[in-house]
Amino acid sequence: MSETTDIGAISRVLRLISLLSDHPNLSAKEAAANLGWPFSTTHRLLRRLLEAEFAAQTRKGAFTPGPELFRIAGRLGGQEPLLRIAQPLLETLAQRFGETALLTVLERRALQMYIATSAAPPDPMRYFIELNRASPLVWGALGRVLLANLSDEEIERAVACPNPPDVKGAPLDPDGLWSHIAEIRSSGFATTHSHRTLNSIGIAVPFFNFSQEPVGSIGFQVPAFRYSEGHLPEIVAALKEAAAVISQQARARVDA
To answer: How many CA atoms lie within 13 A of 101 on its CB side?
Structure first.
């Protein structure tokens, strides 16, 4: 087997693992349709993952992430330097403002992001946050503040993707998105209303790597009834301060 063939096979396995992580309980037919692969190839690779315990199968025959994948994810998640840096900052922000604090990581090649960690406030009114699920950048403050820091060509590609509607069922408005991006680039932060969750305000700022490229975003999800625009400057200042700490610490670890 050639090196090119080896790389192609590895790439397929990794894409299949990623698909299972984002969309558990898929049949082999659904996985093949999602990836655009032949059913026979998809089913064969799923059986290999099943044998290695990277996948599991339900009684109805659907495939889900397996115990070995969960074991590796758990070990790596606890060792992720970015999370160790960010978690105490998120917890401080959640306590200070009484709102859910979130941190995302940008998947630039795929023009997506995922929520890597969160911190809940003491208030009983809080959100259920699904971690590590890939999401488009066109919706929500956490995504749009990252999109605004990408090139115009990347933004055009993100807009051209088959993006889902917002939580209210409204389709993406490209002109409105570009207008919002201009505002974000001017202010350095993003706010959104009811993009991913009904009656919810999103507030977010980006953080960067040593090359000043966006790595992720940090922000709040706030119930609309509890939101006061008068508090926005204080919230944004605190988020930017935390983002600066994350950027500095991440650079220090890379330089080391």
So the answer is: 24
Global pTM value = 0.74
Q: What is the DSSP string of the chain?
A: --HHHHHHHHHHHHHHHHHHHHS-SB-HHHHHHHHT--HHHHHHHHHHHHHTTSEEE-TTS-EEE-HHHHHHHHHHHHH-HHHHHHHHHHHHHHHHHSSEEEEEEEETTTTEEEEEEEE--SSS-------S--EESSSSHHHHHHHTTS-HHHHHHHHHS-PPP-TTSPPP-HHHHHHHHHHHHHHS-EEEESSSSTTEEEEEEEEE-TTS-EEEEEEEEEEGGG--GGGHHHHHHHHHHHHHHHHHHHHHHHH-
Dist CA 144 CA 250 (whole Å): 22
Looking at the chain, the whole-number percentage of residues with pLDDT higher than 90 is: 66
Q: In which band, very low, low, confident or very high, does the pLDDT at 152 lie, cut at 50, 70 and 90?
A: very high
